[in-house]
Amino acid sequence: MSLENFAIMRHELLLTAAFLIILVGEIFTAEEKKGKLRGFAIILFAIVTAAGFLPGAEGSLFGDMFRSSRTTLLMKNVLNIGTLIVLIQSFTWLGKPENIDRVSEYFMLLISTLIGMNFMISSGHFVMFYLGLELATIPLAALAAFERYKNNSAEAGIKLILSSSLSSGILLFGLSMIYGTTGSLYFDNIAASATAMPLTVLGFIFFFAGMAFKMSLVPFHLWTADVYEGAPVNITSYLSVISKGAAAFIFVIILFTVFPVIIQTWERMIWIIAVLTMTVGNLFAIRQKNMKRFLAFSSIAQAGFFLLGFIGGNELGMTTVIYYALIYIFSNLAAFGVVAAISNQTGRESMDEYNGLYRTNPGLSLVMMLAMFSLAGIPPVAGFFGKFFLFMAAAEKGFYVLVTIAVLNTIIALYYYLLVVKAMFINKNEDPIGRFKSDNMTKLGLAICIAGIVITGFASGIFEMIRNISFGI
Amino acid sequence: MNILSWLVIIPLLTVTGILFLNDTRKVKLVSAVGMSIQLIVSAVIVYMYLTARKAGNTDEMLFVSRHEWFRTLHIFYTVGVDGVSVAMIALTSVVVFAGIFASWEMEDLRKEFFISLILLATGVFGFFISIDLFTMFLFYEVAVIPMFLLIGIWGSGPKEYSAMKLTLMLMGGSALLMVGLIGIYFNSAPDGGPLTFNILEISKITIPIAAQRIFFPLTFVGFGVLGALFPFHTWSPDGHASAPTAVSMLHAGVLMKLGGYGAFRVAMFLMPEAASEMAWIFIILTTISVVYGAFGAIAQKDLKYINAYSSVSHCGLVLFAVLMMNQHAMGGAILQMISHGLMTALFFALIGMIYGRTHTRMINEMGGLMKVIPFLSVIYVMAGLASLGLPGFSGFVAEMSIFFGAFQHPDLFHRVATIVAVTSIVITAVYILRVVAILLLGPIKDHHFDNLGDAKWYERMSVVTLLAGIIYIGMAPLGLATMIKESLIPIVDKLL
Q: How far is B282 from A355, CA to CA, in rounded Å?
């Protein structure tokens, strides 16, 4: 192991270092000063995120079990940005008396999951992939149950751990079948020697089921609404954005590099699942009143849109998946940020209570409106560009029927996103949520999201950079 | 900086100016100043255009400027105008100008209202100057979405329902349009070479006919939803009736023309072969729009609904004319867009002013208004006569060209369709004259109306501007018609 080898694992090592520093910091902090750890941890993570953007080394380690390329570096940076925003948004909630003494646990668990996701994205061998997947999932269940005195939270944690365990088991079963048919678990070897044998295809289907669980695709989505509703808002935003994004990234890498031989099979599977996911997600979201459940179903539908980038197996597809993930991070975190700010201040989480919000809290309403427009794909915010390019990626390979179904689904989605805008701007309320000032950290988090939403679309340089890097896969 | 881009920059600057104002009285002033500057810039562009053409410039589009945007997707910010676009820009700036003055008394959330209105105008201007399909589509959607807030917050009647229905249906149309545009893009280089979104470049190649057969209906219907194509017009009556005055003016006067312009510039221009094959289906639908809209107007008792159905009928006529694919009819279509744009804006402005005084829009609750508010009533009569196509007003010129051009087709189908469409003139006369009689003539119905004030200065500004345009085009159409005709020649050549 030489120094340059370490540079290949830079992201993971920096995250581990941050983890350890927080652990040590916690030991040496007095009871009353625990709150300071929050700011310290956020600054530490910001440094890690910034360091991630320095030019990175490419190569492989551990006998090709761990790979780093410009694409994986980009994906990890995107996840880091999202996690940073989640951490900034958690600042206020962590300051509450019931959470203040467990601040460091929160950061350590979150960073562990991120380390797991990083390993997962960089994997070159299915065991490394599986290790990353488990590391990414198990601490999340603990985080979902973080508010231990609330039944919802505990229920969310149990649901998450049980369903993840089942899907991981199925995924492992699938991997074992693939090992049986190809004799290796290395990505390159499988890509070279796999054929479209029934057993390989069956193994692939089980693998797909495991990944579909992580991405909340229909029909593996049933855990999503309850877990998102029960978990603390910030964990929900982390789950819906980072966890899903990481799953999408590794999924697209594996599909394109390991299983191109059975592209016929997974094209058809993705077609059907994309249609199901978009439709079911949209139809169920229409009836939701609880904002967290609403955003949960909306993110199920968004996962369906991601699949349009997968289906072509083309390089534009991978580009648009990464691009859309970045935009989705900003949009969803803005929406969750507003929900969190209101929930922390007033405890209200129902859409009916958002009626008339513009008259009392115009800033928050505008942020929410921009987030809703971005999720719906309305110009001039970034969501429009993301969706348009995703549809182009699918259309490039001739999937026009799928694109038509997808655009019709965006209209259904527009209906429920407009319901939120209607509630805030148009509906009247005798007892609206009172005017309050959010603290600086919340404002900072929302400001970063809004900057992202507004700029990412128009600044074509971001898309071009992602496109250049995606050539590498 | 290209002069055309100023048409987008000036409204954005106005919005920024309004954003930072704290005094709401200044909001009106800033909006009025901004849109007056816009009107002047449009006039300058018209003048520059005419001068350039007279100097012998025969490019398809003038004042073209390209900026690379998404290089790998061949998306550019490309702007350019020809005679048709210039005419539409002139129309938009006049209607927006009139609309600002018609909203002078808006009290509730005044800043937000003017910001939304001017953002809508930005989208419209951007649409007319764009010649890159992606940028055009972006501006198209920017023009639609402020409608939701404008109708939902400041509207009347079943405003939430109307706003939601309008937004979802229009976005539904643009969803189909998106598929159509993406399809055109991926078929824009059938002989190899780079794909493109640029309208001029695509018009030089022939998209494979199999692709055209799929994407022409999608694109035409996508634009047609906004252009009141039967049976996708149902958002229009409720939408117009529930919207506040200036919004109805802008929407019926300008936004619905986006549909007609898009159908002509994108669907027919880029896919002429499929257009010839499939025109008959859409001719039937548009003929139904024209006649059904007119009959629908007869049945209404609410002034705004009458005007809304009338707009369905007139905008249907635009699409009808575009589908006739010859020079007279298409020239008539553009003239009809401008003429109807001014007329309907004038009508909605007048209705708003009448409603502001009488607080009712039901025609049988009012009567004899000519005695009480003579200025507004006379303008209303003139607007009515223009709408039913009286010579001397722009409506006659437009409809004459359309029917003349449509009848030039020698086959039975086109001629029958033309005759059916012509009957709408009579039906229009019925509902226009009926309203004028009940509303304005005769004895005063409700003596609460005895002391209504006549038009104020800003209201006079608004209606006189529009009426002046209508009369000018009606009396001296040659300049406008020639400008349009010259730009249509290359398009019609491609269609035949």
A: 43
pLDDT digit string (tens) for A198-251? 999 999 999 999 999 999 998 899 999 889 988 998 999 999 999 999 999 999
> Considering only CB atoms, which chain B residues are within 8 Å of A411?
168, 171-172, 175
Q: Report helix angle A291-310 to A222-230, nearest 10.
A: 140
Cβ <8 Å between A396 and B186: yes
**How many CB atoms lie under 10 A from the CB of residue B246?**
29
Query: Which of B179, B218, B221, B225 should be substituted to probe chain A, the one whose Cβ sees the most A Cβ atoms within 10 Å?
Result: B179
Name chain A contacts of B185, Cβ cutoff 8 Å. Answer: 392
As for how many domains chain B has, the answer is: 1
Of the ranges B57-61, B124-128, B148-152, B184-188, which one carries the lowest mean pLDDT score?
Answer: B57-61
How far is it, in rounded angstroms, from Cα A309 to Cα A313?
8
pLDDT (0 to 100) of residue A369: 94
Q: Full-prediction pTM beyond 0.80?
A: yes
Q: How far is the C-alpha of A307 from the C-alpha of A276, rounded, in Å? A: 11
- B72: DSSP letter: G
Residue B232 is classified by DSSP as S
Query: A277-320, pLDDT tens digit by residue?
Result: 999 999 999 988 889 889 999 999 999 999 988 898 888 889 99
Reading the block at residue A25, the tokens are: 């910091």
Place of tokens 């002013």: B353
**Is the pLDDT reported for residue B442 higher than 90?**
no
On whether the CB atoms of residues A221 and A179 are closer than 8 A, the answer is no
* Pairwise CA distance, residues B143 & B25, whole Å: 26
pLDDT at A1: 59
Instruction: Quote the pLDDT of residue A371.
Output: 94
Contacts of B72 in chain A (CB under 8 A): 463-464, 467
- Domain residues for the domain of B287 are 3-495
Q: What b/e string do you get for A38-56 counting C-beta neighbours within 10 Å, with b at 16 or more?
A: bebbbebbeebbeebeeeb
**Distance (Å, whole) CA A432 – CA A426:** 13
Q: Tell me if A411 and B168 make a contact (CB, 8 A cut-off).
A: yes
Distance from CA of A313 to the nearest CA of B (A): 17
Q: Do B71 and A464 touch (CB under 8 A)?
A: yes
B172 contacts on A by Cβ (under 8 Å) = 408, 411
Give how far the C-alpha of residue A209 lies from the chain's centroid of Cα atoms, to the nearest Å.
18
The complex's ipTM works out to: 0.90
Judged by CB atoms closer than 8 Å, whether chains meet at B73 and A414 is answered as no
A392 and B182 within 8 Å at the Cβ level: the answer is yes
pLDDT for A471: 63
Residues in B whose CB is inside 8 Å of some CB of A read 69-73, 75, 134, 138-139, 141-142, 145, 148-149, 152-153, 159-160, 163-164, 167-168, 171-172, 175-176, 178-179, 182-183, 185-186, 214
- For residue B277 the two structure tokens come to 């094959």
Beta-carbon-side half-sphere exposure of residue A356 (alpha carbons within 13 Å) = 10
Whole-number pLDDT of residue B2: 80
Say how many Å lie between the first and final Cα of chain A, rounded: 26
pLDDT tens column, B86-135: 999 999 999 999 888 888 887 788 888 999 999 999 999 999 999 999 99
DSSP assignment letter at A438: P
Do residues B132 and B80 touch, judged by C-beta distance below 8 A? Answer: no
DSSP A381: S
CA distance B23 to chain A (A): 17
Say which of B134, B142, B171 has its CB closest to residue A380.
B142
Which stretches in chain A have pLDDT values below 70?
Answer: 1-2, 471-473
Flag if B176 and A422 touch (Cβ within 8 Å): no
